[in-house]
User: Fold this.
Amino acid sequence: MLSEEDRRLLHILSQDCRFTPEELAIQTGLSPDYITKRINQWEKDKIIVKYGLLINYEKLEEDRVTALIDVKVLSQRGQGYDKIAQRFQRFSQIKSVYLMSGDYDLCLVVEGKNMHEIAQFVSDKLSPLELIDTTSTRFILRRYKQDGIEFYGEEERPKRLMITS
Amino acid sequence: MKQYLSPLVRSLKPSGIRKYFDLAATMEDVISLGVGEPDFATPWVMREAAIFSLEQGQTMYTSNAGLIELRRELSKYMAKHQGLTYSPDNELLITVGASEAVDLVMRALLVPGDGILIPDPSYVAYAGSATISGAEIHYVPLRAEHDFRLQVDDLKLAYTPNCKILVLSYPNNPTGAIMTKEELLPIARFASEHDLIVISDEIYSDLTYEGTHTPFATLPYMRNRTLHVSGFSKAYAMTGWRIGYVAGHRDLIQAMTRIHQYTIMCAPIMAQVAALEGLKSGESAKKEMILEYDRRRRIMVNGFREMGLTCFEPLGAFYVFPDISATGLSSDAFTEQLLKEEKLAVVPGIAFGPAGEGHIRCSYAYSTQQLLEALSRMERFVKKRL
Ligand SMILES: Cc1ncc(COP(=O)(O)O)c(C=O)c1O
Assistant:
């Protein structure tokens, strides 16, 4: 179980991972030493896996598309989904692999330059895999919100009064 | 035309912040730490519930005491989270903000000449409502050396036999102070011994950053003596909706409901609907805001101490109350010069009563970026004067 302090620390880091241990110390009331040790341990244990960046590529007008590919797998005696999932995760085009409930078994998040490139990837690399039954590919057209961040709308809040009691 | 005004109304003092409000309004690029309301918008689940209710045409009066669903949910919530047991049927009244609740208590209980004990410094509305009631105000100083916690010795000094009401307000505006159960117990004994009704304004109770908040009405023998006032403005970021409540003995709640019925009718229905949704599903959004305030609180206290000012650690609400006396300025002069020189607006401690002198109130209901910019302007200003 996480302590209340550690939960607070992770919460702040997950909002903005650029704070120094000294800055984090001010914001949490923990000591910089403790924070450094804790973060090192979390990194070592792969609890903190990566420090991320969230980019709104649409604003850069970069060519980049993302597809969600649902995959139904042929069941094989004595084998779970781990083997095929591990196979998928080696492809650099595949950014995420999830085991899902529902009609399909796995969901892949695939990135490419354009729809054509992704279609090519599906037909060349995925469909031929002997363990795959069917796939269903859906392209993301626009990102309104990701990882809790709204990309559009409500940018400026209405003004409050300057001074109130 | 002033001769037509009631002498009680004429005796109402102008607000101590008006002057700065007007001055700031004429300036550009002012950063303000002067606002006593959250910077967050009301959590979306609550706004959405109100929008839906409007689409459904829920635009009627509610019962005078408020929607029974809201009172039931509130009663459950108070029992679960605060150990307070009030019947939704006759011990809870939904009001137009905690402000109305405070005013109702005073109207229901006070006649001209009654005494009321009001802490100094404190939220300005207490003295305002008491003045309109014609009550005699006895200020009880809160002292920096006690971290602005009310002391029985000071109560004894301020008390006179005509006193009928004691106002308590923790977590406190403007100081950010809280009081623990142990510290409240002697106050409770004093209230019993002197047969005082206690208005306990606990509107900031969810914004307590260390330990757990003790509702005054949960102390021994205090339930019948206490009018527990609170509201949704602060913890649920709902200031503009105007929704609060008061809980207490049914005789008193009934009397207040009668006044409320004649003067207000009922709190706005859409605000009641949004508040109900907040109780049902707003908990995680509220917790998220509290975490954020706590982070900013630490940044502010650290910032003031780093620039060489004495700043006690506020453990509640969203204010810091640093001591600026080392600059040699009064809180009024400090505020005025700070606004003119650095375009930074704060509220002078004196606006909350004479014992607030020597301090300024800074709200941290602002983004981190604004707080850091404000601290850097403040530091430049203070460094020149220390
Ligand atoms: C201590 C205190 N009580 C009551 C209020 C008023 O709250 P409401 O918006 O519910 O009327 C405020 C607002 O600043 C406050 O600081």
About this structure: The pocket of pyridoxal-5'-phosphate is lined by residues B 36, 97-99, 123, 169, 173, 201, 203, 231, 233, 239, 244 (CB under 6 Å). The mean pLDDT of chain B is 96. The radius of gyration of chain B is 21 Å.
